[in-house]
Amino acid sequence: MRLLKVAFRNYKILEDNVFEFAENPFYYSAPNETGKTTLIEGIKDAFSLAPARLKDKKTAGKDVLPVLEVTFRIGEEVYHLKINAQDETVSLRGSDGTDLSRPAAIERFWDQKGYHLFPAVLNSLLIIKERDLTVEVTRGLKALMDTVLKSATIEELKKSFENMLIFQKGWELRFRKQSFGKEEKQLRDELAGLRQELEHKRSLFEEYQKNMARLEALKKALSARRKEQEALDQELVWLQKKLTYAEYQHLLAEGERLQKESLLKEQELK
C-alpha cells in the first residue's frame, strides 16, 4: 500500500489542508505546533473507521464536524477512503469497483488484501521528532539514518511487532506474546482451563442425552398404559350396556307375567 493523498476538513489545527505524497519517502518539516503530529493522528483516525472519534477533534472556533479523506494505492488499483463525522458514515471506493460502506466490510477488505497487521501498524505509527536524534548533520546522511533507525521510536515499533508475531522454535510454532499482552504460559493455562470446561460440558451433555432417553422410554410406557386404560374403559362401557339391556329384558318379562296374572284373576271373577 502507498498513500497518495490525505485531505482534512475542519480537523484540529490542520483545518482544511490537503497533503499529496508525490515522493517516496515523504519528508515533512515544519515549526512546532503546526500539525506534524496531527497529520499522523489524522491518518490513524481515518483508518480507524470510527467517525465518532472525530467529534472532539473539530477545528477550534468552528462548529462543523471533521471529514477525513485518504487516497491510496494497492498494486495497480487506487482507493478512496472517507470518514465523515457530520453524518457518521464510512465509505471505501476503488478503481476495481470496490464500494463498501460498513466498517466490518472494510476490515474484511484489509484481510483479503493481506493487511492482517495493518491496524497494528497504524497504532504504532509515530513521528520521529528532532529530540530523538543525537547526531550532527555534518556527519553525513548515513550517520543520520543510522541514528533514526536506532531511535526510541523505531525500537518501540520493532519490539511491538516482535511481541505480536509468532516465532518458530525447532519444528514447533510458538507464541512469543499476543498483541493483547498475554504470555505463552498464560495462554496455555487458559487453553487447559477451556479444555477442562469443555470436558465438563461434554459430560453434562452426555448425562442430558441419557436423561432424554429415559424420558422417551417413560413416555412410551405411559402411552402403552393409556391405551390399555382406554381398552378397559371401552370394555366397561360395553358391559354396562349389556347389563342395562339384560335388566330391561327382565323387567319386560316381569311385566308380561303380571299382565297375564291380572287377566286370569279377572276371568275368575267373572
Could you walk me through the main structural features you see in this protein, from its secondary elements to its overall organization?
- Among the domains are: 115 residues, P-loop containing nucleotide triphosphate hydrolases (Rossmann fold, 3-Layer(aba) Sandwich); 54 residues, no CATH class.
- The protein has six helices and eight strands.
- Strands 2-1-3-4-5-6 form a six-stranded antiparallel sheet.
- The longest helix is centred in the C-terminal third of the chain and has 86 residues.
- The protein is elongated and about 155 Å long.
- About 6% of the residues have low confidence.
- GO terms for molecular function: ATP hydrolysis activity.
- This is Rad50/SbcC-type AAA domain-containing protein.
- It comes from Thermodesulfatator atlanticus.
